[in-house]
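Q: What structure does this chain adopt?
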Amino acid sequence: MSQTGIVIVTHNSEPEIGPCLDAALATGAQVVVVDNASQDATLEEVLLRPAVRLIANPWNRGFAAAANQGIGAIDCACVLLLNPDAVLLGGLAALASACRQPGVAAAGGKLVDERGRPQTGFMVRRFPSALSLTFEMFGLNRLWPANPVNRRYRCLDLDAEVPAEVEQPAGAFLMVRRGVWQELGGFDESFHPLWFEDVDFLKRARDLGCRVLYVPAAAARHLGGRSVGRLPWERRRVYWYDSLLSYAARHFRPLSLGMTCAAAMLASVARMGEGILRVSPRPFWVYSRVFRLAGRRLILGRREERVFASAFSARQQSSGG
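A:
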């Protein structure tokens, strides 16, 4: 079994995928691209590089399912999940060495912007709490980024040059240990099409007793949000809230789940009010749907998530995952 592989999930990633692949191939690692039905020239860009293995899905299966496809198709002990808008700058061996340490499930590296500045607040976070998500939904973290809740959640006190044991490195640059991935049944594909699937995976790994490391010797330049930014605003909002509420239902205690659902409903009412004042139907349509999603979670509690979890486990067993 090879030691290291790289899996890149794409969806309309034509402008970014070329530099990402060139840097990935330069490491000598096995590289697999799983494309979720891109409508641009992403596939053509990938096919220009014959050393890359391409899996082209005929429909958008979502990030979690595509990541599982890629990891399942590559015979490596450690697999790096890399966003197509991230370009490796070095340190892949250091990341793999950290990931192979006893008891380690995953390791993340340092993400920098186009000017070389660490993306503090994004590249490593702590697991979300009901309070931190409430601050997010009401926009308090944007209005007051230095508030104590946000500082803790986004690890704003992190020294980007010091290795550390952490909770949640960004899924944009995350190496996972294949054995742990298999033990956990992979990423939960019901987080569809994206968001919180990596947080859920790392939380389940921590609950299993595994460690997660931050390795600044490994670095990538990250543009951020390119494919997601091409989604219509309405879909982005609904997808984010739906995945957020799913995460809360799976990992929060009943009181914290209730607080999160109530906050989502109140935030939705406020945003619908903004839409009325602006005479725009878009916020009303989006946040009325979010309100219904949050209300459903509030009423059903964790029961609905147990059904999703059981169905996910059954799929994994039937596929031999």
